[in-house]
Amino acid sequence: MALTTQPPPVKIATPFGMAADVVIHGEERASQSYKKGAFLIDDDSGLIKENAAGYVDGGGVTRRTLGIALGDATGTTSHDVAIGYAGAYTVFEGTLTDLSAGTHTLAAGDKWQTFTVRKGTYNWYLDYNTLSANGAFIVGFKDAVGTVDGRVYFILTAACRGGMHAASGAI
User: Fold this and answer.
1) Which one of 28, 31, 59, 123 counts the least CB within 10 Å of its CB?
2) Cα dihedral sign for 133, 135, 141, 145?
């Protein structure tokens, strides 16, 4: 079953005491079409592209991320890319939904769980159907318990952070 609605983009959440978001810059790989909020990775040659695996779950170097796109891709090789850095203390805001059921109703038991982050048609979301050892660790709720496809606050686990190069490790 497909998602019943397209979730809003992922963004960096700032109500957790951080004074400012950490922004890093890279150069865009050719022919990119990602949208703001997409999880980005290096292409192992120094250029930035969307995480083509369609997952952020720590299941391998192609499933890691440097952070999220702070703007849409231009499609221009080597264009400057601003990235909201995925550090150990970076809190993101995203939608928790269920790809299999089409929606998910936010429940108290969702807090402190870790779910795979997936790409929808355009935007990324947390998939309730894929509880994982690595992925998005939910640390709070933006929306009230009982909200369908509610927004949550999450931190990416260490295995999900880093570049595509095997030696880049968790950041």
Assistant:
1) 31
2) negative
Confirm if 7 and 122 have CB atoms less than 8 A apart.
Answer: no
Q: What is the pTM of this model?
A: 0.87
Q: Give the separation between CA 166 and CA 106, rounded to whole angstroms.
A: 36
- Spatial separation of the C-alpha atoms in residues 79 and 168, rounded to whole Å: 23
**In 6-72, at which residue ranges do the beta strands (DSSP E only) sit?**
11-12, 23-28, 39-42, 47-50, 55-56, 67-69
What are the CA-CA distances from residue 42 to residues 33, 39, 124, 157 (Å)?
A: 15, 11, 18, 18
8 A C-beta contact, residue 47 and residue 71: no
pLDDT of residue 1: 52
Q: Residue 106, exposed/middle/buried by CB under 10 A (0-12, 13-18, 19+)?
A: buried
Write down the residue that tokens 């982050």 correspond to: 117
pLDDT digits (tens, 9 = 90+) for 43-70: 888 899 998 778 888 888 888 899 999 9
Q: Is 109 helix (H, G, I), strand (E, B) or coil?
A: helix
Q: Are 25 and 82 in contact (CB under 8 A)?
A: yes
